[in-house]
Predict the structure of TPM domain-containing protein.
Amino acid sequence: MAIQLFTQQDENEIINAIKAAEKNTSGEIRVHLESKCKGPAFERAKEVFEKLEMHQTEQKNGVLFYVALEDHLFYILGDQGINDRVEANFWESTKELVIEYFKKAEFKQGLIAGILKAGEQLQNYFPYQADDVNELSDEISKGK
């Protein structure tokens, strides 16, 4: 059974946050939702990252926000281009921000806050260029 956490309006607000974040950076942000995680969160996030072809961006600067709702798992995965340029705990403050909202069952607000923060952080390493192309869909992907 597919996960239904957000209304269409909620999803549109999350997508709008992705679009806003990507105006500041050439980085590409995606959100993936599913009910249960098949294996460790890091491994599953890597699988989803590959399935969504996020590793194929020109600068290797894709970012995945992975959420397994029933298992209460959340993971932020950045591509190699990001990981090669940032400090080891680059995503920690973003992850902590999102989790604070999640603890209050404010899932939409948590994702929006995290996405916008990720856009701000990525801007320092991958600033928006006039010729940037949106390489990945901004739509929320969903598993089971």
About this structure: The domain at 8-123 is CATH 3.10.310.50 (Diaminopimelate Epimerase; Chain A, domain 1).
